[in-house]
Specification:
With 360 residues, the chain is an alpha+beta fold. It folds into 2 domains: 18-198 and 309-359, no CATH class; 206-299, no CATH class. The protein is built from 13 helices and 9 strands.
Length: 360
């Protein structure tokens, strides 16, 4: 799986006339309608998991002028256009709609005929994806959009977006159920970001594997050591960890204090692995960070602090060889858009990705 950043993602507060948004929605609807008439619904599902395809949709509707704000418009269009009779359905969206996914999945289950096991699996996926991108990866971006596209057979794609306070920078996270082996190790199909952060706590990195194991070991078998470690944290401001050998090593993030009752509740749950630990209700960013620091101190198992996003300039993309982009071009050519509208959409698409090719 690759993790990719394609372009500058920033919320741009510019005044646009209503016709601009109506035209963008009409263009997107025509392209999506054409895509589904040419390719099967499962291909659209897989395509939406690709950051390149999503950015291609944005560019073809001239929404790249809005930066990260385009994601919400594409999300609304997808939800308005895609209907269950196509074999796909869209739930969630921008807050507060993102919080209504469980209720929307309940309604969808009766339409697609999901059994209770499939329904609970979908709800679990939605919850874990949100938990991973808000707690297991701590990059400074606060989630505000959670969109889930579900297939008639229970396959899914989730697109989330977060904003970094005070900067208007946003970051987009793509997930797909196909070939997802773990929610907690390299699970994304793409991460789109404006820039790489200097320090990110990434518990999903392969380099954090030993840290994840140590966290589980600590809550199950070293609860008293965790209690002692917690007492040694001075008001959440500590950035130094003293190892048993007396050698001070840096933990480059503040270490929060957590309550003993919370630690005890986790201990009593006896999680068998890190995914089970993360799935426990109440285990959020503070607990994840505390346990990561404790794992480094008690087991010499520090986590990864590298940002998982790959930047625009680092991703080799060729219009002729990127399959989702090729399919998007075909959909535009065969859409009900006028010749002038098709030319505009294709020129916009080629312009954006030609700039990308020049970087590679």
């Amino acid at each position: 799986m690759y993790r990719a950043g394609l372009r500058e993602l920033k919320l741009i507060y510019s005044s646009k006339p209503k016709w601009y948004f109506r035209q963008a929605e009409r263009t997107l609807t025509a392209i999506l309608e054409s895509y589904l008439s040419i390719f099967e619904p499962k291909k659209l599902l897989r395509a939406l998991a690709s950051p390149t395809f999503f950015d291609g949709l944005v560019a073809s509707a001239s929404l790249d002028e809005l930066g990260g704000g385009a994601t919400s418009i594409v999300a609304v269009t997808l939800k308005n256009f895609i209907r269950p009779d196509s074999g796909l359905a869209v739930v969630g969206g921008k807050r507060p709609h993102g919080y209504k996914v469980p209720e929307e999945l309940d309604a969808l289950a009766s339409i697609f005929g999901f059994d209770e096991k499939t329904l609970e699996r979908l709800k679990y996926a939605s919850r874990m994806v949100a938990k991973v991108d808000s707690a297991a990866i701590q990059d400074g971006f606060q989630l505000y959009l959670h969109l889930m596209i579900v297939s008639w057979d229970g396959a899914w794609v989730i697109i989330q977006q977060g904003i970094k306070p005070m900067t208007n920078l946003v970051r987009r996270y793509h997930w797909i159920s196909a070939q997802l082996r773990s929610f907690v190790e390299e699970p994304h199909s793409g991460i789109v970001s404006a820039a790489r952060e200097e320090i990110v706590l990434d518990m999903t990195s392969r380099d954090s594997r030993e840290s994840r194991k140590a966290c589980v070991e600590a809550v199950n078998n070293d609860i008293e050591a965790l209690k002692k470690f917690s007492r040694g944290i001075a008001g959440g401001q500590s950035t130094l960890i003293e190892f048993d050998a007396g050698e001070p090593r840096k933990f480059p993030l503040s270490i929060p204090k957590v309550s003993w009752s919370s630690l005890l509740a986790i201990h009593e749950s006896s999680p068998e692995d890190y995914e089970a630990l993360l799935a426990i209700r109440g285990v959020g960013p503070s607990m994840v960070r505390f346990l990561a620091a404790a794992a480094a101190a008690l087991y010499d198992a520090p986590p990864s602090f590298r940002d998982p996003a790959i930047l625009f300039s680092e991703l080799p993309v060729k219009m002729g060889t990127d399959k989702p982009l090729y399919e998007l071009v075909e959909a535009i050519k065969n859409s009900r858009l006028s010749f002038a509208e098709k030319r505009k959409a294709l020129n916009r698409l080629i312009s954006v990705f030609k700039r990308l090719e020049e970087y590679s």
